[in-house]
């Protein structure tokens, strides 16, 4: 059973009750904790790393954008000020520059998605203020008339377009 961010609400000699962020309670036999691995986000420290990914246009100044992302994260109250957010260029992708912003929180029991949403909204606002655009996939689709289609498939398949009882549509 893989749950997520559950909080222990009760421990008995035979079972433990976990409550999820959705309010659902799970009763687990204690033998599961002995025979299976347990991840504990607050055993020795409470700091947890979260991250968000996005893609920017090739023409954007990557160093400036990375700095904007880090500064935007620092405006969110729950983001740790002691361990600075770090923005990285992960990959030069097919549709733009893939970036990741990693940041730390010290109160995971208050939820992750809400702070992730706050950071994403802060980044979005900062991007709007600085004219940074988020990239999106761009694809070209060529629509051909029937005669052009038959000529194109005849060149690709010398046996004719109906040789394998299939049609090929090419994009650019």
TrEMBL record:
The protein's organism comes out as Herbaspirillum frisingense
Q: Start and end of every Mechanosensitive ion channel MscS C-terminal domain?
A: 53-133
Q: Polar residues: which segments have biased composition? A: 163-172
Tree of life domain: Bacteria
**Alphabetical GO biological process terms:** transmembrane transport
Name-wise, this protein is Mechanosensitive channel MscK
Q: Which residues form a coiled coil?
A: none
Ranges for domain Mechanosensitive ion channel MscS = 7-42
| Stored InterPro entries | MS_channel_C (IPR049278), MscS-like_channel (IPR052702), MscS_beta-dom_sf (IPR023408), MscS_channel_2nd (IPR006685), MscS_channel_C_sf (IPR011066)
Which GO cellular component does the record give, naming just one?
A: membrane
Please give the residue ranges the record annotates as the region Disordered: 145-172
Gene symbol here is mscK
